[in-house]
Amino acid sequence: MKTKTFALWTSCLTLFLGLIAAQPLRAQTIINLTQDVTVRSAGAYTYYARGDASGVAVAPFTTAFYPGASLHASSGGTDGSLIDTGANGASVSLSTGYLSDNSASTSVWGWIDVEQVTSGSASTTHNGSFDILFDLGSTYVITSVVVTYTDASGKRWTSTANTQLAFTSLTAPTSDSGLTSFASATTVGSATNGLMTFDGADVEARYVDLRLDMSIGPNPTSGSVGGIVSEVAIYGYAVPEPSTYALLGMGVVCLFIGGSRCRGWKR
Fold first, then answer.
1. What is the mean pLDDT of the chain?
2. Residue 2 forms beta bridges with which residues?
3. CA 66, CA 84: separation in Å to the nearest integer?
4. What domain range includes position 62?
C-alpha cells in the first residue's frame, strides 16, 4: 500500500509539472495583439474628443473625430489642423489604420479643438487631452502598451511626468467611470520615434483607452497642434481556457492528497 501511495504521488507530481509546462506557458506567450491576425480582423480604434473649440468639456466617448493632416482626415488639408470636427468620425480598423500598421514612417497628428483643457486656458497656449479607444474584438490579458510618438516644434506632447494615461475595460466605456486605470507614461521633448511605455499589472480587458495629453496653441487653430503618433502596440496574451485552470486545480489536489499520504508513509 505504501509503495502504491508513493507511486500515486509521483504520478501526480509528473502530471502537475506537465500541465504547467504544456498549458500556462503556451497561454501566456506575450505578443503584440495589434499585429495578431485574429485581433486585426475584429479590432478597431476610435478617436474621441474630450472638449470643443471653446474649451468646453464634452461627454467622454460621445464625439468621434478624425485627426487632420494624415490618413483619417475626412477632406483635404495638410497643415495639421482638424478638418473633420466630429460629425463624420468613426472607428478605424486595425487592419488598415496607421496606428497599427507596424510602421513608424506613417503617422497621425492634428488634434485641434478636441481637447479637454488640463492646464491653462483654451484662449492661450495650454495643455489638453483626448482619447483613443482600442477595441480588441475579444477579451485578452493586457500586460503593457507602447506608443511610438514624435515631439517636435509645433507638435508637442505634455512632458510633465506621468501625464500620459492608459485605461482598460471589459465592456465598451460610455463614461470615464467605466474605465480602470492601467498605467501612466512620460514623454520626452524633441524626440523622434520616442516611446511612451505603459507598464501596468496584467489585467483582462477588451478595451484599451489612451488618454494622451498635449501642448496646444489657443483654440481654434493657432500655435501647436499637438504631438505625432506613429504606432500603438498592445502587448498581452489570450485568456487561458477554464479547462486549463480546472486541470491545474486537480493537479494541486492530487499533490496535496498524495503528499499527505507519503508523509504518513515516511513515518
1. 80
2. none
3. 6
4. 30-239
